[in-house]
Amino acid sequence: MGKIIVGSAVGFLLASIVISFIKIFSLIALAGILAGSSEVKTPGQGILKIDFNTPVTEQSTESLNFAGGAPGAMSLGMNTSISVYSMVRAIEHAAEDPAIKFIYMTPEDPGMTMSMATAEEVRRALAKFRASGKPVVSYSTTLSGEGYYLASVADKVMFNTYGDPMIFGMSSGVVFFKDALDKLGIEMQLIRHGKYKAAGEQFTKNDLTPENKEQNQAMVDALWDAWAEDIAASRDFTKEEFNSWLDNLEISSAKSLLDKGLVDQLAYQDEVDEYLCKLYGVDEAKDLKFTDIAQYASTIKSSRKGKDKIAVVYANGEIMVDTPSDNAISGIKLAADLAEIRKDESIKAVVLRVNSPGGAAQGAEMINRELGLLKAEKPVIASYGDYAASGGYWISARADKIFCDKSTLTGSIGVFSMIPSFGKALRNKAGVNIVAVNSNKHSDIYSMMRPLDANETKYMEDAIEKVYTDFTSIVAEGRGMSVEAVDSLGQGRVWAGSDALEAGLVDECGGLVDAIRYAEQIAGFDEGYCKIVEYPAVKTTYEKLMEGFGNAKAAVKAMTSSGKISKKVKDNPVPAFEAAYSTLQEENMPRTWARMPYIFEFR
Fold first, then answer.
1. What gap in Å lies between CA 83 and CA 232, rounded to an integer?
2. Is the peptide bond between 536 and the residue preceding it cis, with omega within 30 degrees of 0?
3. Contact predicate 289/112, CB 8 Å
4. Crossing angle of helices 361-375/454-479, nearest 10°?
5. Phi, psi values for residue 185, rounded to 5°
6. Between these two residues, 20 and 486, which has the higher pLDDT value?
7. Are the CB atoms for 382 and 401 separated by under 8 Å?
8. How many whole angstroms separate alpha carbon 572 and alpha carbon 569?
9. Residue 562 has pLDDT above 50, yes or no
10. Per mean pLDDT, which range of 28-42, 113-127, 472-486 is the poorest?
11. Is residue 396 classed as helix, strand or coil in its secondary structure?
C-alpha cells in the first residue's frame, strides 16, 4: 500500500510539472504579446475617467492568472493594479495637461479596491485638480460612505434617480475566539506590556476590555471625524448637520440626498451623458473621448532630468526576520537594501513608505539599526500609508520627518508574546498524550504541549519588558521626547493619524507625493529634479514568470536526480516531509511581537 501511495504521489507530481511547463510557456507567449501591444494615446481633447475598478496598491503590480472555461479549456487573464504614487501623479499631471478637459468619476464602492488612507490621498489630489480650474464630475448608482467621501469633492455630484444611498458612518468589528478555544481545550498564554496592547485578547477574552474599547472608539471617532470634516468642507452643510442626518436615518433615498444638498442632481445615465456632452462640447455621447486613469498614468513620461536620485523604499506588509513572500517585509532583505542605498552616492535622500501593522521585533530592529546608519549620511523621510503601527512605527520613528494621512493607524507602542498550550485538547479531543523527556528543567518550554510555569512566565515577562524598554527608547530618541512621555502615549495604544499628529508621534498630515517633495527640498534640490528609484524594484510579468520557473526548477531538482524521481525519495518520502515540517515548526516558534492587535477594517 505504501508503494502505491508513493507511486500515485509521484505521478501527481509529474503531471503537475507538465501542467506547470504548459502554463509557463503559455504565460511567456502571452507576455510577449502584451509587450508588443500598442501604447495608449491620450486624445487631443480627452476626459480622464476614474471608475475605481482597478485596485490601488502601494506599488503597481501585474500578474497573469488562469481561469477555467469549458471542460478541458483554459483561459488566461491579467490582474493589474496602479500604485498610489502613480494615481496621484496622474491626477496632478492631468491638471496641467491641455489634452484633459475634466475628470469624470464613478465611485460606486471604492472600498473594494482601495484603503481608507489611499482614498484620502486620491481625494486630496482630486481637490487640487479642481482647484486648478478644471471640473470634476461624479456619478453613482449607489453610494457607500467611502464612495461619498470621494464623490463629495466634485464640482458636480450626480446620483441615479432611483439609486441607493448606503451612508451610515463608520464601523469596525472584533471577533473573539476564547469560548471556541475553551470548548476545544486549547489554552492561550498571553504575555505583554501595554494596557492597550490588545494583540492576543481575541484568544484570551470574549469581549473588549475597557481599555481596548476606549482605543477602538477613539479610533473610529477620529477617522470618521476627519472624513466628515472633509465632506462638509466640500458641501453646503456642517459636520454636525451631516452626523445628525446619519444618526436619525434621514438619508434613505436619492431624493433625501438631493434635498439635503449631498448631491447636485438626480439623473439616469442618458441624462448624465447629456451633461457630459455639454461640458465637453459635443452633441452625442459617442463623441465623448475617455481615457482611463491607469492607461493615462502609463503614458506619462518622467520630466525628471537630474542624475541625482530620491530613493522610495516600500516597507509593505507584516515584518518578519526573513520571508520569501512579496506581501511581507524581510528584516534581513530590507536592511540590506538600506545598506545598499547608504553606499550609493547618487541617492541624495530617502523616503521610507511604511504600510505595516508591525510584526517580529527582531526583524524590526534589524531595519531600525540600518536606518540609523543611513540617517547619519542622508535625509530620511517617512511616509505612512494605511498602517505604521508597532513594528511599523519602530522602524520609522527616527526619521527626520514623518508624514501620515489622517486615516493612517499608527503608534501601538507595545510588545507581546503568545504561546498556546495544545496538550489538554489533544488528550481530551483526540486521545493523544505527549510526554516530554527533558535534559533540563525547562527544555520543553516552547513545546506548546503544556502551560508555562511561574518561573517560565517570569522569564518571558522579563524578555518582553526589555524589548518594550528598547522600543520606547528608540521612539524617545526619534521624536525628541522623554521615555516617560513616550510610555504615556504607548502602552500599545493605536492612534488615528489626526490624533497622532496632535500627540507628536508624526509631524505633518500628507501623502507620499508630499513626502517626496519634502525629501527633494531638504536635500537641496528643486521640485521634480531628482529621479525616483524604488526599492524593491517592481518586477515585470516576465521577471515573475522566470522567478516562478526558477523556484519550480529548484523544487523539482530537490526531488529528482538526473531528471528522474530520486530513488531515495521514492522509497522513503518520510524524511522529506519531516524536513518540511521542521521548517514549518521553526517559523511558528513563539516570538516577541511588536504588532498591531489585528488588521482593522472599517465599513
1. 28
2. yes
3. no
4. 20
5. 85, 20
6. 486
7. yes
8. 5
9. no
10. 28-42
11. coil
